[in-house]
Amino acid sequence: MRKETSGLRYVVDEISTEHFIAEHYFIYVVKGLVILYDGNKHVELTPGQCCIARKNRLGRYYKMSENSELEKVILALDTNFLKRFQDRNKTTITKFKSTETFIRIGKSDLLPDYIRSLTPYYDHGQISTPFAEVKREELLIILLQSQPALAGLFFDYGIPGKINIEEFMMQHYKFNVSIDRLAFLTGRSLSAFKRDFAQTFNQTPSRWLVNKRLSEAHFLIQKKKQKPSDIYLDLGFETLSHFSFAFKKRFGLSPTELLGLKRTAIK
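Structure for AraC family transcriptional regulator, as requested:
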């Protein structure tokens, strides 16, 4: 997949395979481009831009190099770290109003210098253990100083409440996560999720997910002329071979055969 942005050519280097955001993550792009997707919209981060990926949400990223260069900083702001910080610091907390999965961080004079300050502490792509807590605290102070409302996000340790299962599944069926995760994110136990799912869709979650993804794949190949190798990850399949097998079992021909038929018809 290629994407034209601002007159520069970006080439996809990696598509995330883990779609459940287990903790808050700070993402800062130094070089290249990172595109984040939450099932509803895409958020682009260009050099100098950053955001918080919100915990207990579904999302994926596309990392793209610009002129063969890609550099980003990703730091986890996990629950245990946040609780330790809160214990040591008095912080004013108000309800965080935004419902976005990816919260953009506004420009700060301190952030570019902070990012550059991390370089001496990196060890094999990670901040070395003795400094990890200190550097993350420094980041958190900068974020709370520039956007105090983030305290309502970081220091809310609640779990997802019960939500509409149909709306959630229609928005997130392309994400590759376990049924247990889906149950948790809709505010249900596994048994309650399966029961409510059957009442809503008249199918098991696994069967519905496969059929929904395959129907979307058929549409993209037949109507949009997209290549199977370009879409299988986006639709929640882990491997191209698994996607092709399931597709042929459902429709009686492989994805490449369907694409070939479409091209023949055009000629």
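Confidence is low (pLDDT under 50) at residues 1-11.
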